Amino acid sequence: MKEKLKAIVDEALSQINASDQLEKLNEIKVAFLGKKGELTSVLKSMKDVAPEERPMVGQMVNEAREKLESCLEEKKTVFMKKLREEQIKSETIDVTLPATKPMVGHRHPNTIALEEVERIFIGMGYEVVEGPEVEFDYYNFEALNIPANHPAKDEQDTFYVSSDAHSNIVLRTQTSSIQVHEMEKGKLPIRMIAPGRAFRSDEVDATHSPSFHQIEGLVIDKNITFADLKGTLAVFAKEIFGEDTKVKFRPHHFPFTEPSAEMDVSCFKCGGSGCRFCKGEGWIEILGCGMVHPHVLEMSGIDPEEYTGFAFGVGLERIALLKYEIDDMRLLYENDTRFLKQF
């Protein structure tokens, strides 16, 4: 038995000294000290040893185990030290090299345009008001003079929260609903803009999206006239597109204003002479506006005999596309950093 143990230890030591990888040491440990290893098999054969010799044999096996474990640990320490030295060498940092600059984000083109619009109107004494994106049909349509059978409601076919065709809860199609909430509060006069997301069932293309942003404006006070509307929007156009910008108002129809108009601005690229940007017309359509319809005032509890007002609405993406000469609205939503970091 003593000779057998010596042969096992000599073989194990030979393999340990010859090993050149850490994984090889694990294989040797399993082969000699594992549950089915050489030393374990010796212990299992103790039943064949005479009872008076078993203590001596057991001691010899334990001494052999301790010797092998000690050698394995020493060899493992040598390997680990060598690996550590190689790691330190490969991970050496040259502290004299310039540091890698962190990639810092910035505001989205829509946000930049919105903040500029807000700055302009806050400078004219307006308040920025927000409201719910999920809205009652009443505030989105009826209170804006668009009853259930009105053609304008078909034009703004939208997303209903309920599958019921007669659901009265919708995703707002315009931020004009915020104006109704403010008028119902009865705190007059009102000078406000209402920016926010709106939703319509439009196909996605270069100029349309089912989710977009609007900025609606509202002024309610005594003796407000169309001249106030024109003057306000003329100042806005000059501030956003340049001091030489001119405005033109064309008659139009909106259910919640009377009279109503579409406003064009002179092309800020060619000064109105005609170019590719304005499609040779010299003018660019920018927003819709008008005097608040008396019936809209009445429905919100405001006396149209005492108060008048004007309202306007402009697409935020429209401003961003024009201001930064972007020819496809989808670029604003694709989150391509090559595009966004230009702003």
Automatic annotation (TrEMBL):
It catalyses: tRNA(Phe) + L-phenylalanine + ATP = L-phenylalanyl-tRNA(Phe) + AMP + diphosphate + H(+). Mg(2+) binds at E258. GO terms for biological process: phenylalanyl-tRNA aminoacylation. One of its GO terms (molecular function) is magnesium ion binding. GO terms for cellular component: cytoplasm. It comes from the Bacteria. Keywords: Aminoacyl-tRNA synthetase, ATP-binding, Cytoplasm, Ligase, Magnesium, Metal-binding, Nucleotide-binding, Protein biosynthesis. Residues 117-334 form the Aminoacyl-transfer RNA synthetases class-II family profile domain. Binds 2 magnesium ions per tetramer. Its main location: cytoplasm. PANTHER family: PHENYLALANINE--TRNA LIGASE, MITOCHONDRIAL (PTHR11538:SF41), PHENYLALANYL-TRNA SYNTHETASE (PTHR11538). This is Phenylalanine--tRNA ligase alpha subunit. It comes from Anaerosporobacter mobilis DSM 15930. The gene is pheS.
